[in-house]
Amino acid sequence: MNLMEKIRHLHVHTSQVAIFYLGQAGFCIKTSDGQITVIDAYCSDACERLFGFKRMTPTVLGIEDLDADLFLSTHSHTDHLDPDALPVIAKNIHTFFVGSPDCEALYIQNNIPKSRYQILKKGEKWLRNGIGIRAIEADHGSLAPDAIGLLIETGELNIYHTGDTCFAPDKIKTSLNTDVDIMIAPINGQFGNMNASEACALASVVKPKIIIACHFWMFLEHVCEGGKGDPSTFLKEASEILPESVSAIVMAPGEVFTYTKEKKK
Predict the structure, then answer these.
(1) Architecture per CATH, 3-259
(2) Going along 7-114, which residue ranges are E strands?
(3) Whose CA is closest to 77, among 159, 123, 28, 138?
(4) Which residues contact 56 (CB under 8 A, 6 or more apart)?
(5) What pairing do the DSSP bridges indicate for beta strands 158-161 and 36-39?
(6) What is the spatial distance between Cα 74 and Cα 86, in angstroms, rounded to a whole number?
(7) Is the pTM higher than 0.85?
(8) Are 6 and 254 in contact (CB under 8 A)?
(9) CA 121 → CA 105, 138, 180, distances in Å?
(10) pLDDT band for position 225 (50/70/90)?
(11) What does the alpha-carbon distance between residue 123 and residue 133 come to, in Å, rounded to a whole number?
(12) Distance from C-alpha of 143 to C-alpha of 181, rounded to nearest angstrom
């Protein structure tokens, strides 16, 4: 059974969400109603083909296998909106795409009609089948001025993927303006991204129940000097920086984390 089959067969209970790590900044989220949302999945070797960035961790979800109701992209960089995977994924007519403004050119290039995608600028929100997607402040500098974070509101809990961003706690906190159950953040500390300590410091401001590290070990070029992009360093920083109410998690590619929201007393 491949990973996509495991995702399809997994039963998610009410007040739960299942999160599968796909490597780099990619995740697959399954909610209790069976909806499957994929965000920032990098499934090919396009970065090596285009830029010489060799993949260091194997693909856990094949392009041909990927089957999502929603396919989200925080920005158009190759390791977030995979240009080799997109034309294959687009063939699945029930997949709907949501992305930042710079993603639209790739949607058009791959003949995805406007009826199948939604562009979100910072502060904008879109709702479909009970799942809300809100574009959150992100600062990826001149590398991707249109980059956004994404808040996924399932109706039962909120998942915040920071996207690629530097440390901008005040702007991000203001943009979120809501409680967050799970926060996903980069720790590589390169190319305009937070390092491990900055990701933990942001979590101290946002105050999620869980912070999950991402954007590590995929490319040698993303390794930060001094170990600040290493997941073990992230866990050490988390133990020193995070309040007791926030738990830090490092996932292996292909691993699933099931989160159950506690009912308010």
Answers:
(1) 4-Layer Sandwich (3.60)
(2) 16-23, 26-31, 36-39, 70-73, 96-99
(3) 138
(4) 217, 218, 219, 220
(5) unpaired
(6) 14
(7) yes
(8) no
(9) 15, 11, 20
(10) low
(11) 10
(12) 29
* 3-state SS, residue 116: helix
CA distances from 156 to 32, 132, 166, 260 (A): 9, 11, 29, 10
The percentage of the chain sitting over the pLDDT mark of 70, rounded to a whole number, equals 97
| Vertex 21 angle, CA 45 and 174, to 5° | 105
State the greatest distance between any 2 C-alpha atoms of the chain, in Å, as a whole number: 53
> Reduced to 3 states, what is the DSSP secondary structure of residue 34?
coil
DSSP category for residue 195? B
Q: In 3D, which of 32, 93, 106, 26 has the Cα closest to residue 59? A: 26
Q: Tokens 């909806």 appear where?
A: 35
Query: Distance between CA 139 and CA 8 in Å, rounded?
Result: 34
| pLDDT higher than 90, residue 222 | no
Arithmetic mean of pLDDT over the chain: 95
pLDDT in tens, 116-162: 999 999 999 999 999 999 999 999 999 899 999 999 999 889 999 99
Mean pLDDT of 222-236: 80
CA-derived radius of gyration, the chain: 17
